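QA checklist item 7 of 12: single-chain prediction sanity check.
[x] sequence parsed
[x] length recorded as 259
[x] structure emitted
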Amino acid sequence: MSSEHSERKICAVICQSKGLKAKEIARQLNLDRSTVNRVLYTSPLLKDLCYQDNDYRWHGIIRQSVPHDGLFEFCGYYGKVSDFLKLTENEWMDELTKGCQRIGRNLNDTRGLIHSFRDSREQMIQLFADLQDMLGNSCLDWEIAFEFRLKRSRYVRIYADVLVITENKVFSLEFKMKDKIESEEVSQAAKYVPYLEIVFGTDYEIIPALVLTAANDLFDFISIGKSDSVLPVCSGDMLFNVFDEYLGFLSKESDNNIP
C-alpha cells in the first residue's frame, strides 16, 4: 500500500469512527502499527482533518452527518441552502470574506477573485431557482459550502469552489469564467474527489463537475485525462442538468405525467 493510499485509508477510518487508538486502526486496516503511527504524526491530511484526545483516541473534526459540524472550519462560507438564499449579495460577500481570512485563503488578487466569487454566487442563485421549480422546497434543506480548503502540505492547497450536499450526494463544482473546455481544468475538477470521500464518508457519493459560466446551453460528459472516466461539464444555465443526471427528478416528473 502506497504512503498516500495509507494516509487516505487511515484518515477515512478515523473520520468514520467515534474514536480509535492507533492499534485499533492498524487492526482494522491490517497494517503495521509503526506504519499507522508514522502516518498519524506526519501526515498533513491527518493534521487538517483529525485530532487526538487525552485518551490517545483519534477523531475526525468534521461530522459525517447532517449538519456537518466542523465543516465550517474549512470553508469560506457554509450553511443550509435556505439560509444562503436569504442573504443579500453584500451580506454573503461579507461572511465569505471573513471566512476566507479565517481559513487562510489568499485574497490578494482582490479584483479578479471577488468577481469570481460574485459570479459563482449568481450561478448558485439561478440553480436553486431552477431546482425549486422542479423539486419544490426540498432542496432548501440541502447544505452549501463555498471555498472549501484543505492544506495537504506547505506547497499544496486544495480548493473546491462550491460544494452542494444533498441527502446522499456531494456535488463538487469547479467554476471557470470561460466558454471553452480545457482538459487540465476537467482534471482539476476531478482531483478533489478522493479527499472529499474521506471528509464525507461512505454514505455520500462525490460528484465533481466543471461549470463554464461564460458558455451557454452546454451540457456534456468529458473524459478525465487519458482515463475511461468522464466528468460532467456544463454552462451555468444548464447546471440543473448535472443534478438531474444523478438525482433523476426530471425523469420522475415525466413518469408522473404519463396518463
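[x] summary fact logged: The radius of gyration is 19 Å.
[ ] second reviewer sign-off
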